[in-house]
Design brief:
By secondary structure, this protein is α/β, with parallel strands linked by helices. The chain contains 19 helices and 15 strands. The chain has helices at about 5, 60-65, 85-95, 105-120, 130-140, 145-155, 180-190, 235-275, 280-290, 315-320, 350-365, 385-400, 410-415, 420-425, 425-450, 450-460, 465-475, 475-490, 500-510, and strands at about 15-20, 30, 45-50, 75, 100, 160-165, 170-175, 195-200, 205-210, 225-230, 295-305, 330-335, 335-345, 370-375, 405-410. It has a five-stranded mixed beta sheet with strand order 1-5-4-3-2. Strand 6 (about 160-165) and strand 7 (about 170-175) form a beta hairpin. The longest helix is centred in the middle third of the chain and has 39 residues, at about 235-275. The N and C termini lie far apart (about 60 Å).
Length: about 500
């Protein structure tokens, strides 16, 4: 198809700002990106869609346009209502057509329109595998679900097939997948130097891993495909590539719907920060977002500091960590930061905290030298306390950031506990304190294959009860007495002293 054909699609309502004489350019594909340097993720002849979140001034416009190469055109989306003048000038100077898209038209609609047109241009394909690829594309654009799409590919390849998130959550699949296999696949996806990759299961069978979108800003914000067997080749490989592209299209549809929710949440946050938030206005926006407070509501704030940035992953990562237990409404609140309002229907705050931490621990494998920190507020059942709820989550996030851990979570309950004090202590000082109190125990355990450190922790957690500790460790009381005496000898501290016990407990909590 050509650009002028695209402009004739009335439902898209595209307008031309530059390149009126270049509308005979042929569109050979479509890509969506908001990376400041899109060079690695776009191809010649593609229609490039962007929301302009990368825009920071004239220099950024010149660099972005220069890195697009020989794409067919650039479509500016909804992050800014009117494209900045410096972007218009940069496109005009580069001879690049610049189009604008109305606020109410999602990128997924443009992508679907282009895909339909390109499929129609293919005509009757000469190969069976190519026919299968057309059937897959038609399944999606004709309203078929992602589950039908993956099931169709599983049938074409004659192997089970899944779409997974980087936490190991199965988005859709042609059959159930055990938890151990999901986590092993997620770890491989996050850590593999090159993709596609492969996982060998304990029974010796293989599972292959394939990224959904090469243009994602980071793997922890991407989905991936997995299918049984070794990596396919030839025509079947083309089928997997086609599936990955169609899954990326379906995800863009979901993200388009979420962008509408984020606009309402942005309005709500602005209203709350103004200090003039009338209760009816807050309730109205919560109703628009379908957020109920009857069973409890809390706020979650996240910071994702990654190698090479991370500004674009905070929202999808927080959204992923909350799913499927308690999906919330998520929006960006600053560079590499996001906040969510989470209704607790059917769940407790402790369950949500454990769920979020478990997912973040899985993502830790893909962080490199980066960090994910989270702050979670206490629970409220009324909209009147919403402002303080969000402030509490942000305060907890600040405290979590004081920790040296690559993944750290501070909750509203933690803010009023000793964990807050520990988080505020510099990491080097915490490690030194722990080493002074427990270093000899750790060395002794390592050299002699003993469990003095575990014994000390159990003794303190059982409030110094000999009988409860011995029962917990499945040892005789005399054995426990010997171990505790050895702990006192190695550390030079008395376990009969309350102050010494507190010091030991704090040291055990420090990492």
């Amino acid at each position: 198809m050509r650009l002028r054909d695209l402009l004739q699609a009335g439902q898209l309502a595209l307008k031309v700002l530059t390149g009126h004489d270049l509308l005979d350019r042929r569109v050979r594909g479509v890509a969506t990106t908001d990376l400041p340097d899109p060079a690695m993720f776009v191809k010649a002849g593609e229609l490039v869609l962007t929301e302009l979140t990368w825009h920071t001034g004239p220099a950024s416009s010149r660099d972005f346009v220069a890195n697009l190469g020989d794409v067919a055109a650039l479509v500016a989306g909804t992050a800014l209502k009117v494209p900045p003048a410096d972007l218009i000038d940069a496109c005009a100077e580069a001879g690049l057509p610049l189009l604008t898209l109305p606020v109410d038209v999602p990128f997924s609609q443009v992508t679907e329109h282009v895909l339909r047109a390109l499929i129609a241009e293919l005509g009757t394909p000469p190969r069976p595998a190519y026919a299968a690829r057309r059937r897959l594309a038609s399944t999606l654009v004709d309203g078929g679900s992602l589950t039908k799409l993956v099931t169709a590919v599983a049938g074409e390849l004659d192997v089970p097939c899944w779409v997974l998130s980087p936490t190991g959550r199965v988005v859709v699949g042609s059959q159930p997948l055990p938890a151990a296999a999901r986590l092993r696949l997620a770890h491989t996806f996050l850590t593999a130097r090159f993709l596609p990759g492969m996982v060998t299961q304990e029974d010796g069978t293989a599972l292959s891993v394939f990224p959904v979108s090469k243009g994602a800003p980071h793997r922890i914000a991407n989905w991936f495909l997995a299918y049984a067997g070794e990596q396919v080749q030839g025509e079947n490989e083309d089928l997997v590539v086609e599936l990955a592209a169609l899954v990326a299209l379906e995800r863009s549809r979901l993200e388009a719907a979420q962008r509408i929710e984020r606009r309402v949440l942005d309005q709500l946050l602005t209203l709350l920060e103004s200090g003039d938030a009338a209760l009816p206005g807050v309730v109205s926006r919560l109703h628009t977002l379908h957020v109920e407070t009857e069973h409890g509501l809390l706020a979650v704030a996240l910071s994702a500091r990654l190698d090479g940035g991370g500004d674009e992953v905070a929202v999808p990562v927080l959204d992923e960590l909350l799913r499927p237990l308690a999906p919330g409404i998520v929006t960006a609140t600053g560079p590499a930061e996001a906040v969510a309002l989470v209704p607790l229907a059917g769940n407790t705050a402790d369950e949500l905290t454990a769920h979020v931490l478990r997912g973040a621990r899985t993502l830790e494998a893909g962080l490199g030298q980066g960090r994910i920190t989270l702050g979670m507020s206490s629970v409220t059942t009324g909209p009147a306390a919403l402002s303080s709820l969000i402030e509490e989550a942000r305060h907890a996030l600040t405290l979590a950031g004081l920790s040296g851990d690559r993944v750290s979570v501070i909750t509203g309950d933690d803010v009023s506990s000793h964990r807050t004090l520990l988080a505020a202590i510099p990491g080097e000082l915490r490690r030194a304190f722990r080493s002074r109190l427990l270093g000899r125990l750790e060395s002794y355990d390592a050299a002699n294959q003993t469990d003095l450190l575990e014994t000390l922790q159990a003794y303190l957690e059982e409030s110094g009860s000999w009988a409860a500790t011995a029962e917990r460790l499945h040892v005789h009381v005399n054995t426990l007495r010997y171990r505790l005496r050895r702990i006192e000898e190695l550390t030079g501290r008395s376990l009969n002293s309350w102050d010494e016990r507190v010091d030991f407990m704090l040291a055990l909590r420090m990492r």
